[in-house]
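Bench notes, afternoon.
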Amino acid sequence: MELKGKRIAFLGDSITEGTGVADLKNRYDNRIKEACALAEVFNYGIGGTRLAHQSKPSEKPRYDLCFCGRAYNIDPRADVIVVFGGTNDYGHGDAPFGSFSDATPATFCGAVRFLLSLLRELHPDKPVVFMAPARRNGDEGVYTLHQANNPHARPLLPYVDAIKEIAGEFGVPVLDLYRELGINPNTAEDREKYAPDGLHFNDAGHALIAEKLTELLAKI
């Protein structure tokens, strides 16, 4: 795809919102806009949000503005839609993981399917790209807070693989940041260089995300 002049919508959480960058111009979507001469980016990043619905209200109501509900707000002028989420479902959501056949936002798998179905309905002629969660500190185990809220909690990788499995049914390309980004905040070196808090990426981390995503978008 020729990206010059395109408008891209980014639906995401705190990473898409820009938590961790020193300057928002260095956020991954803005980097792509500058490097590829996009006409416009629409940023729908809200920190703490999840793909799936929350059954018990969160301490911060903002966290419960799930991706499935916010998808209705995506600007119809967008030429491409990029979804980047799932890490908060792993981190503090109370929705069951569910099964790949689920179609309700009440489970994680169901939310992925519901969201992709909705985007196909609302934007039938627009390509959709999904970025699966990147690695985060402690991701090989069940996140402590998540375990307390959700007895069905799993390590992060099953969430990544569920996104890939379901997106594949829709023909939606997935950028598997868990495996392909090359950043592992479980190591002190990568945490210091790219993700000081073990989750949110700094300017250098966003530069790598922008590079990987641009490569994928160019192949569509």
